UniProtKB/TrEMBL annotation:
Residue span, HTH cro/C1-type domain: 11-65
Organism in which the protein naturally occurs: Clostridium ragsdalei P11
Signal peptide: none
Gene3D superfamilies: Jelly Rolls, lambda repressor-like DNA-binding domains
A Gene Ontology cellular-component term: cytosol
Protein name, entry field: HTH-type transcriptional repressor RghR
The encoding gene: rghR
GO molecular function: DNA binding; DNA-binding transcription factor activity
InterPro entries: Cro/C1-type_HTH (IPR001387), Cupin_2 (IPR013096), Lambda_DNA-bd_dom_sf (IPR010982), RmlC-like_jellyroll (IPR014710), RmlC_Cupin_sf (IPR011051), TransReg_Diox_bact_type (IPR050807)
Keywords, ordered alphabetically: DNA-binding, Transcription, Transcription regulation
Amino acid sequence: MNLNNIIASNLKKLRSDKKLSLSNLSELSGVSKVMIGQIERGQSNPTINTIWKLANGLKVPYTALIDEPKSKTTLVKKEDTINQCSEDGKYRVYCHFSTQNERNFELFRVELDTASSYTSNSHGEDEYEYILVFDGELTLETDNKTYVLSPGDSISFDASKTHTYINNSNEMIRMTILNYYPMNLKYYLP
């Protein structure tokens, strides 16, 4: 995609998201309505100064107008996941999605070997963890309580407290963990 088309697409989306007419944006940015219309149709090659004016008028970073829009579809292949494990190697985490400007959660595929456990410290204030068990039987200790989850069971809890995953079963535990971070997310691109 060429830069003029990228700017055209981004400008149109940002102006629409902020519910600004051409006249409103013209007043806010000091760029004429005619020029804004031409830029949005890809009929103009805006100068750096014009892009700065538009960015300031929209109250977005300069790069919000020039960066290529991200695809709304993200494919993560199993072999491309980020792999981490505990010191003893019995607890393995595969990160499929990390937090980003437009995403306030992390998604992990997790394995916990038989006759083992893993203790996780606080993830931070007001953060929550969601678990869905696929294989094995998970014993979860958190906030001075014990929960036993079988395949198909799920739980959510306050991850700001230390919590321990325990596998007392004869089968490896396979589960998905989603860590949710309630933060004020600001993103500018589609």
